[in-house]
Amino acid sequence: MTDGRRLRSTFRQGDTDVVSRMADAEIERARAAGDPAGEVEGLYGLARVALRDEDLDQATDLARRALAVAERAGERHLEERPRHVLAAVARLSGDHARARDLYEASIELNRSLGLAEHVHSEYHNLALAELHLGNVERARPLIAESSERVFRAGYRDFLPYLGIAAAALASADGDVRLADRVHRPGLRRPRPGARPR
């Protein structure tokens, strides 16, 4: 497993202290080796820890530093994770208009890089940003298309997010009972064009 994969795996396990130490070590190693990919990965790991700790200023600073490294290296694929963090910061800070713009830009970057699963993920985030902005009729087709992609492409890890999106949409429609039902476990594939049950 590469250092980047170890960092992400450790983060998912919830041990942020270990992630921080690993990320610091990776940044130091990468700088000594002239490895921009490793430096970006380390900064991204620290930015995720800051997001988890709800330190949005720190997450922004780390993501911008990672983005600067990527841009200096001239490797667009290294920009993807820092740009994702910056969009998440905007969303979590309540600036949903900026989040929408950043997610749209991230979608275009991921599409140009051929990262279909990341494109899908950012469309999910874009739909939620549109809901927060009150643009329910813009969010509705995005959520329906997201559901279709999950089952068509076999993105099983995204199944729980379908429930979240469906519940958010039902809540925006004022259907509290439906929002409660679709947020529960046991989500089944909806019929094309059908509202979640």
Write up this protein:
36% of the residues are buried. Helix 1 (3-12) runs parallel beside helix 3, helix 8 (136-153) packs antiparallel against helix 9 and helix 9 packs antiparallel against helix 10 (176-182). This protein has 197 residues and is mainly α. It has helices at residues 3-12, 16-33, 36-52, 56-73, 80-92, 96-113, 116-132, 136-153, 159-172, 176-182. Helices cover 76% and strands 0% of the residues.
- The SSE string, one letter per element, is HHHHHHHHHH
Structural class: mainly alpha
Q: How many E strands?
A: 0
What composes the largest sheet?
none
Report Rg.
18 Å
Helix content: over 70%
| Average of the residue pLDDT scores | 89
Low-confidence stretches: 185-197
Task: Estimate what percentage of residues fall within beta strands.
Answer: under 5%
Give the overall shape. elongated
* Alpha plus pi helix count: 10
The span between the termini is 41 Å
How would you concisely characterize the structure shown here?
The chain is mostly helical and 197 residues long. The protein is built from 10 helices and no strands.
Topology (elements, then pairings):
Blueprint lengths: L2 H10 L3 H18 L2 H17 L3 H18 L6 H13 L3 H18 L2 H17 L3 H18 L5 H14 L3 H7 L15
Helix pairs in contact: 1-2, 1-3, 2-3, 3-4, 3-5, 4-5, 5-6, 6-7, 7-8, 7-9, 8-9, 9-10
